[in-house]
Write a structure and sequence with these properties.
The protein is α+β, with helices and mostly antiparallel strands. It is built from seven helices and four strands, in the order αααααααββββ. A hairpin with a 6-residue loop joins strand 2 and strand 3. This is IraD/Gp25-like domain-containing protein.
Length: 205
């Protein structure tokens, strides 16, 4: 988590939104976070590959460095972001069950990662607009890969539901080098079950 946040901050400060850079050496690939690299390595089950030989970790370091130099495709970055946002929206914040008013640094740190208690939020306000605001605040607070000023969350009127489930359209830009990546995706919220599912992530207009 910390590695992802730091990576996001580095990419954010390196180049302002919309300013192209020299991408010729990467063939269109983009910078990726350390968490992205570790997730890809786990998916390939690298630790179970007995054919590899390491000398004081040198080969391992070389592989990681090479991956960071090569970068990742937009599709891969979107896929990893979707996984992390789905995890975020289904994780309840620590301050929901523990009063952190006397510990503001803990309250504002990654220890308090997650979303509000959806059942309490819905019973207290019970308006789609309040839910949309809560989703936007959670994304700004917890996901540094998204440029905060570009995040918009609105109720998807084209996806009616016969039960209490709501669908929200989320539009944002993901910080990336050489240029930011426009995103559009949808979050289906079931307040009664306290669950959020992400669907139809794609590039924005």
């Amino acid at each position: 988590m910390t590695a992802t946040m730091r990576s996001g901050e580095i990419m954010a400060s390196r180049r302002p939104s919309g300013v192209p850079g020299d991408d010729s050496s990467r063939g269109g690939l983009r910078e990726m976070s350390l968490l992205h690299i570790f997730r890809d390595s786990a998916a390939r089950r690298d630790s179970r590959d007995n054919s590899r030989r390491y000398t004081e970790g040198e080969r391992d370091l070389t592989l990681v460095s090479q991956k960071r130099r090569e970068g990742a495709s937009e599709a891969s970055l979107r896929r990893n972001l979707a996984l992390d946002i789905a995890s975020l929206m289904n994780t309840i914040r620590l301050d929901v069950i523990t009063d952190l008013s006397d510990t503001p640094r803990v309250r504002d740190s990654v220890i308090n990662h997650g979303f509000q208690d959806m059942d309490s939020l819905w019973r207290k306000n019970r308006t789609p607009g309040d839910m949309a605001d809560a989703i936007r605040i959670a994304l700004i607070r917890n996901e540094p890969r998204l440029r905060a000023g570009t995040i918009e969350v609105r109720v998807d009127e084209n996806d009616p539901s016969v039960d209490q489930r709501l669908t929200f359209e989320i539009v944002a830009e993901m910080i990336s080098d050489p240029t930011d990546i426009p995103l559009q995706f949808y979050a289906e919220v079931d307040p009664a079950a306290g669950k959020v599912s992400m669907k139809r992530m794609q590039g924005g207009s």
